Structures are given as structure tokens and as C-alpha cells.
TrEMBL record:
Entry keyword annotation includes Nuclease: yes
Protein name: Putative pre-16S rRNA nuclease
InterPro entries according to UniProt: RNaseH-like_sf, YqgF, YqgF/RNaseH-like_dom, YqgF/RNaseH-like_dom_sf
Lineage of producing organism: Bacteria, Pseudomonadati, Pseudomonadota, Gammaproteobacteria, Alteromonadales
Root EC class: hydrolase
Pfam family, one: RuvX
Biological processes, Gene Ontology terms: rRNA 5'-end processing
GO CC terms: cytosol
NCBIfam families, alphabetized: RNAse_H_YqgF
Keywords: Cytoplasm, Hydrolase, Nuclease, Ribosome biogenesis
Keyword Acyltransferase on entry: no
Residue ranges constituting the YqgF/RNase H-like domain according to the UniProt record: 4-104
Organism of origin: Parashewanella spongiae
Amino acid sequence: MTTMTVLGFDFGTKSIGVAVGQNITFQASPEQAVKANDGIPDWNVIETIIKRWKPNLLVIGLPLNMDGTEQPLTLRAKKFANRLHGRFGIEIALQDERLTTTDAKARLFELGGFKKLSKDQVDSVSAVLIVESYFENHYS
């Protein structure tokens, strides 16, 4: 199996969580979240992350309602994914992210209580869960 590096993004209007993972261990690690202004990141920061990790795939969390229907943020996350693809030409995958924020908060709380629950950390751990659930859906 060829090693594949994956960057995951948890899209938000104020902060975009970032994680990097690979398909050998099927695990990911959180990166520093990227600040966003109404959903628009500093593209230079995104470019720096992409140049550092040289990913084969970008996985963007798709925020859906619990019944699987789209919500206003769904369209914005898809637009973000399209912009990533347009700017960097890297393959894109959308991954259902229902419950990742809740799971991220639970995981961080287990690691260190409420003091670990900064917004940036929650967003990037959510991105970790998005990448890991992508691996589960595509490699198991």
C-alpha cells in the first residue's frame, strides 16, 4: 500500500480545524487551527500547511443535520472544499462530520478536563476525527 498523507479540515466561520493523518496507521494528529473571517481563511496560512505536509488528499468535514439533511453551513463547507481544490489542485473528499465536535470535546475532556477545551483545540480535534472517520469508511 502506498503511503498517503491526508489533511483534514473542520470548516467553521471563525475557525477552521486542521489535522494531518496517513493511511498506514489510520490515525491523525491535530495542527493549529486557522482563524477565519466569516468562513474565509488566510489562504497563505493554508498554503504553508499544504507545502509542509504535501498531502495527497484533503478531507473536509461536511456539517449535516442529524437526519442527514443539509444545513446552511453545509453549502459553505462545500464552497471551502471547492476553493481548496481550485487553489491547490489536490483531490478533495467530503466526510460526514455529524457528532465530531461532541466527540472532540469528550476526547479533550478525558485528556485534561475543562482547561483543555479551547475552541482551537476542539476544532482541530474535530478535524482529527474527520480524517480518522474517512479512513474507517474507506479502508476497513
